Amino acid sequence: MYSDPLMAQAEAADSDAALPSNPCGRLYAISDLHLSYKSNREALEELAPHPNDCLIICGDIGETSEHLRLAFSTATACFEKVFWAPGNHELYTMPSQQGGARGEGKYKECVEVAREYGVLTPEDPYARWHGEGGPCLIAPIFTLYDYSFRPDDVTLEDAVKWAKEEGVEATDEVLLHPDPYTSRIEWCEALVAQTETKLADAVARNPDAKLIIAGHWPLRQDVVKLMLVPRFSIWCGTKQTDDWHTRFNAKVVVSGHLHVRRTDWRDETRFEECSLGYPKQWKECKDSGMDINDFLREILPGPAVPTDDKPATIWRRYG
User: Fold this and answer.
1) Closest among 171, 144, 166 to 238, alpha carbons compared
2) pLDDT per residue as tens digits for the range 71-100
3) Is the pLDDT assigned to residue 109 strictly greater than 90?
């Protein structure tokens, strides 16, 4: 966030951003569209109309304003309302953009593009959902990461070195600048503090409503399982958000980033990782006749909470 958190509270207090009410409408989510790839841009063209439904896009649309405009223009033409939370790729300053916006400035540019299309962002008051599965508040968030998703015996100072030992290093280390903060850790600290304030205020003012918390990075380390690159976990979130699903009365937590589609339950809260991913990561699905519409994850009304004491993870290889 870049707005004053007190101002955000005041805006939320003044009015809920009411969605167009349609009791039959559904809320879907998708993330990691990665529109720098031609085949993913072609896939987006197949997005089907959902005139009574809403869509959350949980980050990593792409790296440029053109990617954002393509996604937002397409999504808003198909859905009644669209929400967006930024991922790391939107925040990149590419080599071809030298001299362009960096860090928070790049995020501000993305928010302004979203507003051109009426897309709601973490900078807007949370919208109240009145459809089936409600009442809920749809809360796009922006938190970044602080390298805390690491083993206990790895220090913060050694976290990146630890990942590099197995040939793992996020592109963020080169392209995601923290300006005006001194580090991504410091930026993450500020974002977490601001978001906590806004979420707490929303819960206090809407005691009847559950939250749909939607952000790019997973809230909990225990839903991060990266079989091929386990040490990439340090770029996947912050332990500061581990209990947000209970503290802030979340019905569903939506994320992306991992490119590992799955559904989990923690304390009666559903966690949805809803990435599309890079073309090679969903090529098998495409070859079997699936398209982007098969990757839209239904968030509301969604399935009932399982009755099992420890519900199993649903691995969603095929969307």
Assistant:
1) 144
2) 999 999 999 999 999 999 999 999 887 788
3) yes
